[in-house]
Design goal:
Mean pLDDT: 83
Radius of gyration: 23 Å
Number of strands: 2
Strand content: 5-15%
Length: 146
Amino acid sequence: MADTAEQTENQEQEKSTEQKSTEQKDGDNQKAIDEALAAAKAEWEKEVEEKIKNGDEYAKLIYDAMALQIAKSIGELATVVNGNVDAIIITGGIAYSKYMTESIKNRVKFIAHVEILPGENELEALAFGGLRVLKGEEEARIYKED
C-alpha cells in the first residue's frame, strides 16, 4: 500500500513538472509571438508613414481616422471622471509615431497635459504601480462617481 501511495505521489510530481514545463514553453511562445507582432506593427507603421510623406492620401486618411478614434476614446474616458484628468499618457508602440502622437495630442491637450512615453511595457508598469501600492510606497487613487 505504501508503494502505491509513493507511486501516486511520484506520478503527481511528474505531472506537475510537465505542467510547469508546458506553462514555461507557452509563456516563451507568447513572448516570441508578441515580439514578432510588435516588430511587424512597427514595420507597418513606418511603411504607412512613408506613404503619407510621399503624398498617399488614402494612407493619410486611414492614419488620421485612427488618430481621431483614439482621441475620441480619450475624450469619452475623461467624461467618466468628470473631467478630473491629471494627465494623458500615450504609450506603447504607437508612441513612436510622431505623426500619430501629434495628431492625437492636438485633439486632446485641452483636457490635460499630454505625455508621450514610447515603449511596450504598459502591463509591467501597471504591475509595478500595483506593487508600490501594496508595499505602501504609494497611495492608491480612488475614483468615485458623484
